[in-house]
Design brief:
By secondary structure, this protein is an alpha/beta fold. The protein has two domains: 70 residues, no CATH class; 167 residues, Alpha/beta knot, CATH 3.40.1280.10. Helices cover 43% and strands 10% of the residues. A seven-stranded parallel sheet has the order 3-2-1-6-4-7-5. Helix 6 links the parallel strand 1 and strand 2. Helix 6 runs parallel beside helix 10. It comes from Ciona intestinalis. This is tRNA (guanosine(18)-2'-O)-methyltransferase TARBP1. It catalyses: guanosine(18) in tRNA + S-adenosyl-L-methionine = 2'-O-methylguanosine(18) in tRNA + S-adenosyl-L-homocysteine + H(+). Belongs to the class IV-like SAM-binding methyltransferase superfamily. RNA methyltransferase TrmH family.
Length: 259
């Protein structure tokens, strides 16, 4: 029927209350009931000016629909037999098992980077994310990258000039302070073993992490690179680091359940 239906020319009470129900083999009022109301002053036409839907046979339409469904089922079966099928990952178990990670992004300026990191933290079950100002969540560029992740992730506001005090308080609560920065004493990400409770500090897009905050961290980690460009975008490096923390924690949990 959809091949014969015109969205404008067939927009009428006859189509809605008579033609469609008839082709679906439902109980319908007589067509004369519409013709009697043809003179009624209404914003929606009573009858169709065309007779295409009126002349369409329900059995032909049902046969066409059945064939289409059969073809789709056959196509889906072929896909299942010949290759992988795309599916959505159920993340509830990951979020329950992860946690223990606080990402500090107060030094980051760009809303796009903050939005992307918010989505990454939410997907991988971070405990919370720290930003300079929570007003960033109302930025359209932030929202285009976050895709509502900020509604499901705990986010807190810590001003840049308050970071030293905040990091000290987290250290007293048993969190290890880890900075993502290229320094002379940086440890390769693939070789670093994250502790169960960890605060990851990300640097500013241009200035990186100030020396006074670097000195507070128990470790600096860097991502191995093989290209010419010196560093990764902070959104990318933060995402890789968050994933590695989550991977190690899930691996530890998996091993503990086997023993």
């Amino acid at each position: 029927m959809l091949f014969h239906l015109h969205p404008l020319e067939d927009f009428s009470l006859e189509t809605i209350l008579h033609s469609i129900p008839r082709l679906c083999l439902l109980d319908i009022p007589e067509i004369s009931a519409f013709e009697e109301k043809a003179s009624t002053d209404s914003w929606i036409p009573v009858c169709n000016p065309r007779s295409i839907l009126r002349d369409l046979n329900s059995s032909n339409w049902i046969a066409m629909g059945s064939k289409k469904l059969s073809d789709e089922a056959s196509s889906n079966t072929d896909i299942m037999e010949t290759g992988n099928v795309q599916k959505k990952i159920v993340t509830s178990d990951i979020k329950k098992k992860a946690g223990g990670l606080v990402l500090v992004a107060s030094l980051i300026d760009k809303p796009s980077n903050l939005g992307g990191l918010t989505r990454t933290c939410e997907v991988f079950g971070a405990e919370q994310m720290i930003v300079h100002s929570l007003s960033c969540t109302s930025d359209k560029l932030f929202q285009s990258l976050s895709v509502t992740a900020h509604k499901w992730l705990k986010m807190s506001e810590v001003k840049r000039w308050e970071l030293e005090e905040y990091l000290e308080s987290m250290k007293r609560q048993g969190y290890a302070l880890v900075a993502t920065e290229q320094t002379e004493q940086s440890v390769c990400l693939t070789e670093y073993k994250f502790p169960p409770k960890c605060v990851i500090l990300l640097g500013n897009e241009k200035e990186g992490i100030p020396p006074n905050l670097l000195r507070m961290c128990s470790a600096c980690i860097e991502i191995p690179q093989v290209g010419v460009v010196r560093s990764l975008n902070v959104h990318v490096s933060g995402g890789i680091t968050v994933w590695e923390f989550t991977r190690q924690k899930l691996l530890r949990l998996s091993q503990s359940t086997k023993t």
